[in-house]
Amino acid sequence: MAGRNKPRHNREIELKFLVKRLPDNLKRQPHFIIEQGYLATEPGGRQVRLRKRGNATSLTFKVGRGSHREEREIKLSPKQFAALWPGTAGRRLRKVRYEISCEDLLIEVDIYRGRHKGLVVAEVEFRDMASCSEFEPPEWFGREVTREKRYSNVRLALQ
Amino acid sequence: MAGRNKPRHNREIELKFLVKRLPDNLKRQPHFIIEQGYLATEPGGRQVRLRKRGNATSLTFKVGRGSHREEREIKLSPKQFAALWPGTAGRRLRKVRYEISCEDLLIEVDIYRGRHKGLVVAEVEFRDMASCSEFEPPEWFGREVTREKRYSNVRLALQ
Which of B43, B73, B123, B143 could bridge across to B60 with cysteines, CB 3.0–4.6 Å? Predict the structure, then answer.
């Protein structure tokens, strides 16, 4: 997802898993609060998302679903963000994100807050299809839920 | 609509009419090319629009339909605009807008280009419901189409 080092206008290849148990030393990994909300979403996966990640604010356009998805992201100034954010009322979610480096991959663990408290998911982004197919989930991962709509952030935010 | 002097985060009261014939001296009025496209739209009228108006680029969030509508608009830098604009491919329209001052009202006349060439509409924005009810359309206005979805910019852009 929208990590700092990710190319900004590209197709994403990523997998999402439930998390059976939190890995050791999680609290020592880099982490920050993410608040996000949706200005508009379409059934086919097209969406415009606002996000505050620590102090960094952004707007992201996505289209498509599943392990392939096109994404376009811009940084927003605090003023731009403040003007648009009220438009996401009733369509928001809040989570703490931990970033775990694992060999040459980055695993993002999201611990949801608010009405989805108890839900923990991990996302892994790959540079190509080959590295995606070769991926062996660590022991603390649960079921893969990449294509399960109920665990999409849009669904979680709207419900 | 998104005129320069309009309050930015408010409810709009506006009426839309077809134009029977172009008013005299139209070419002498201030005018500019507008290109706009939609990143995402929902059936209830919720939408995120990108617009280039002359050289000014903006992103507008709208929710609601008809003569009442909530609108939030931010200016975008050329770089921000360029990053998002490809996301509107296949969902765009192009028109020339003329601004006509008429007593204390502003009439915006939009002459569509491209595949909607031939369509001309006029929009009038009011500061309150009273001035909206008192409005007498000039002789060159045609039928009122405020609530006709076929003339909404979203529909025109998607079709």
Answer: B73
Residue contact B80–A73, C-beta within 8 A: no
Among candidate residues A49, A52, A76, A69, the one with its CA nearest the CA of residue A7: A69
ipTM over cut 0.85: no
What's the angle, vertex CA A44, arms to CA B50 and CA B158, rounded to 5?
45
Using an 8 Å CB-CB cutoff, list chain A residues near B75: 80
Q: Dmax of chain B from CA atoms?
A: 44
Q: How far apart are CA B123 and CA B12, in angstroms?
A: 12
Q: Is B38 a catalytic residue?
A: yes
Could you tell me how many residues make up chain A?
159
**pTM (two decimals):** 0.85
Q: How far is CA A137 from the centre of its chain?
A: 18
A127: left (phi over 0), alpha (psi -120 to 50) or beta: alpha
Indicate the average pLDDT of chain A. Answer: 90
**B73 and A61 in contact by Cβ < 8 A?**
no
Cα A3 to chain centroid, rounded: 9
Give me the residue from B9, B48, B73 closest to A40, CB to CB. B48
Strand, coil or helix: what is A25?
Answer: coil
Nearest residue to A38 via CA among A87, A110, A82: A87
Residues 6+ apart with CB under 8 A from A7: none
**Positions of A marked catalytic:** 38
Contact state of B83 with A72 under an 8 Å Cβ cutoff = yes
pLDDT in tens, A86-139: 999 999 999 999 999 988 889 999 999 999 999 999 999 988 888 899 999 999
Longest CA span, chain A? 44
Q: Find out whether A107 and A123 touch, Cβ atoms under 8 Å.
A: yes
